[in-house]
Specification:
Number of helices: 11
Low-confidence stretches: 239-254
Helix content: 40-55%
Shape: globular
CATH superfamily: Spore Coat Polysaccharide Biosynthesis Protein SpsA, Chain A
Structural class: alpha/beta
Oligomer: single chain
CATH class: Alpha Beta
Distance between the termini: 44 Å
CATH topology: Spore Coat Polysaccharide Biosynthesis Protein SpsA, Chain A
């Protein structure tokens, strides 16, 4: 795919994180691949972020600074005005791992719906490499996910097919989107074995684990048939002897579930057409 011109829309959301925002902006604007627009959605910050954005002199940048109804409301604002074929989100405080991430994506995308890489995850005490699997299963998404901020390039048309981020969820709406797109609707994907971004663990989803679990359960009850969901709840409640690497590399289990979900989705569409007639 090298040499093919694809427009990328990069979306950053920010609220009162001017130091992190400055780092994120630099990591975006320094990308070697030039064909992108940079949309920054600021939630009417009061910490100096707006002054930083006012001095941003780059014709690729589109800045909106106004009150919003939360992180996914801000992301949806960016999606609505994005013109790129692919969208990548990178929140303020997160940075791309190097200046060649966009180029790596372009050279390897193969027209897949979602292209995801690996992450370098850091907090105040440690930094570690988070490796994602080449082949996804429902169990991978059920127990974890794929990277969002800085880690995945998503075709904009997926937001037309699946809808934008569900704003009733305050922490896990991106996870719901991946479950719906990949598991229920069978979106295509590809993994690139390269760290795309350095992710800051100080984010909201790492500080509200109880609320996150409540929201995840609501998403699963909304999207996954009850009989399938019960099997996964039973399986994941049993103590098992495995390490993190074996979980990431376990790509053969639960393949049948994805087939069944696709079949159920198609049947529901057929029934809906029959009812409309």
């Amino acid at each position: 795919m090298e040499g093919l011109v694809r427009k990328i829309s990069v979306i950053t959301i920010n609220l009162n994180n001017s130091i992190g925002l400055n780092q994120t902006i630099k990591s975006v604007l320094n990308q070697s691949y030039p064909h992108f627009e940079y949309i920054i959605i600021d939630g009417n910050s009061s910490d100096g972020s707006k002054a930083l954005l006012a001095n941003l002199n780059d014709n690729r940048a589109i800045v909106i600074s106004e009150n919003d109804a939360g992180i996914y409301n801000a992301m949806n604002k960016g999606i609505k005005i994005a013109f790129g074929e692919y969208i990548v989100f990178i929140n303020s405080g997160d940075v791309f791992n190097d200046n060649f991430v966009f180029k790596e994506f372009i050279n390897n995308c193969n027209d897949k719906d979602i292209i995801y890489g690996d992450l370098i995850v850091k907090d105040k005490l440690k930094t570690h490499y988070l490796k994602y699997p080449e082949n996804l299963t429902f169990n991978q998404l059920y127990t974890k996910s794929i990277p969002h901020s800085g880690g995945s390039f998503i075709k904009k048309e997926l937001f037309i097919k699946n809808g934008e981020y569900d704003e009733k969820y305050k922490i896990v709406s991106d996870w719901k989107f991946f479950i719906q797109a990949l598991v229920v609707n069978g979106a295509t994907y590809k993994h690139i074995s390269k760290p795309f971004a350095i992710f800051d663990l100080e984010g909201i989803s790492t500080k509200n684990n109880t609320k996150m679990q409540v929201e995840r359960n609501e998403v699963l009850n909304e999207l996954i048939p009850d009989l399938i969901l019960k099997d996964y709840q039973i399986f994941n409640s049993k103590p098992r002897d495995y390490n993190a690497e074996s979980v990431f590399n376990n790509t053969n289990k639960f393949y049948f579930t994805r087939i069944m979900l696709k079949l159920l989705n198609r049947l529901s569409l057929i029934l809906a057409k029959i009812i409309q007639k």
